[in-house]
Records
---
Amino acid sequence: MNSHTTLAKFIHWTFTLLYAYGIFKQVDDLTELQNPSLLNFEILFATIFLILVLVRYFYMKDAPTLLGAHEDLSRGHLFIAKTVHRLVYFSLIMLPTTGLLIAGLFNLGMGGIELAIALHEFSAFLSYVVIALHVGASLYSRIKGEGLWNAMVPVWKESGKNNSNLLSKLEAIEEKIYKKVEDKFI
Ligand code: HEM
Ligand code: HEM
């Protein structure tokens, strides 16, 4: 059975915790940055976060997408999954980068900080949307029993394909969407 490497799984799950922590500890407003130890901590955290995202990206970039699927997946399906993964990486790079931009502008007392904050908030919003899509799609795939869940998730293991009537109908709709995506983008 195809599976992601142990290191890939380790990175995926420790990074999930790091992301959750980053979102949880978020700065509430600009005035908090007047506290130098908080500002330094934010800068350190954002730097480590950014380095880890880049290391992860280069480690994972050649790993096959939707590895572990029992059946061949259509090109449209893979294209959508890859696009969502790329958007996850994009938002995870933008979050610390725009955070560091805020810190730089704040330290220098320069203008443009409102724009940096708007970009930072947009990055946070984008990360919520694409990660929710990612988790939703993973759960849907788990219910279908396609095999990819087992390749990354160590709990609630799949035992095989679920051939219920409803899922077969949904799969027929999915195939139509993938065909459209293939015609338009690939
Ligand atoms: C907590 C619920 C989550 C579940 C059930 C889940 C599930 C999965 C699964 C099954 C895969 C393998 C897909 C494949 O083989 O192509 C995967 C990959 C991936 N996941 Fe998640 N995931 C979760 C959370 C997250 C979070 C919070 C992030 C981002 C911070 C994330 C980012 C990624 C990325 C970028 C990949 C592509 C492989 C890689 O580059 O590491 N996931 N996830
Ligand atoms: C990986 C690192 C970081 C993460 C994950 C993160 C995450 C967040 C999130 C989720 C928000 C709330 C956005 C919203 O309202 O939707 C936020 C707000 C904010 N962050 Fe960050 N942040 C990071 C780094 C930084 C850094 C380095 C700074 C500057 C030193 C910074 C300064 C701010 C400020 C000033 C706000 C408040 C914006 C406002 O006034 O509404 N962040 N951050």
Note: The longest helix spans residues 75-108.
---
Amino acid sequence: MSLRFRVLGSGSGGNATLVEGGGARVLLDAGLGPRQLAERLVSAGVDPASLDAVLVSHEHGDHARGAAAFSAKWGVPLSGTRGTFEAAGFARAPLPAFEAIAPGETRTLRRLSVRAVAVPHDAASPLAFVLSAGASSLGHATDLGHLSRGLVEALRPCDALLVESNYDPAMLRDGPYPWSLKERILGPFGHLSNGDVGRLLEKGLSGVCRLVVLAHLSQKNNHPELALQAAEEALDRGGRRGVRVALAPPEGTGWIAVRAGGAAVGRREGQLRLF
Ligand SMILES: [Zn+2]
Ligand SMILES: [Zn+2]
């Protein structure tokens, strides 16, 4: 049973990842407008109405902006925590269905299992997701301030990870943001730095992980080269030279296959490593 994913958008301009496996298709986050989401799905060869669910990690606009309108237009059930439902104002939208999922809970859509994992972030009840089909699993974690034990344990058995590598601390400190926002991003409920991801890659991976996709890079406070370098150095320190690192650019990626005990990256992602 195959599992594959495709980033449709990454970063402050809007996040969304399409995951296909176990006969199901789900969208993780819908931070792009509904029309743009539909266009990017169609260019991936996917009919928007064929999705089984839109799972929203938390209420921030870059993750939830298009969720309600997309769900209503295409008749796709929306899912997330009760806290996200309230904070995002989903009650006001004419949704076809809302299915609440609690942190720690696992849902099965056809033969795709989706586990919700609580993450530390300044939102009502934010989540990361672990998706499994057959023996393959993908961990998907964006927007978190630090690596909580529960999250690291949930990600450890995954064959592939998509994780945010939001900022380089020096670029953030010297950058244009007001100090209050810098403090928020740096804080325990903000975002992961390149170094935080490095610690995860050095010490937190099991032997089965073969691919790490770095996502949600800040365009003002990070540079793709810095994020890649930090991740590759951490993998070297951890003796994990068999793990491939790719970047999710703002406009998304091609399809990425996840295999049990390893993952294959398409040609387009391989080329992304060069910039
Ligand atoms: Zn975000
Ligand atoms: Zn957020």
Note: The pocket of zinc ion (ligand 1) is lined by residues 15, 60, 62-63, 142-143, 216 (CB under 6 Å).
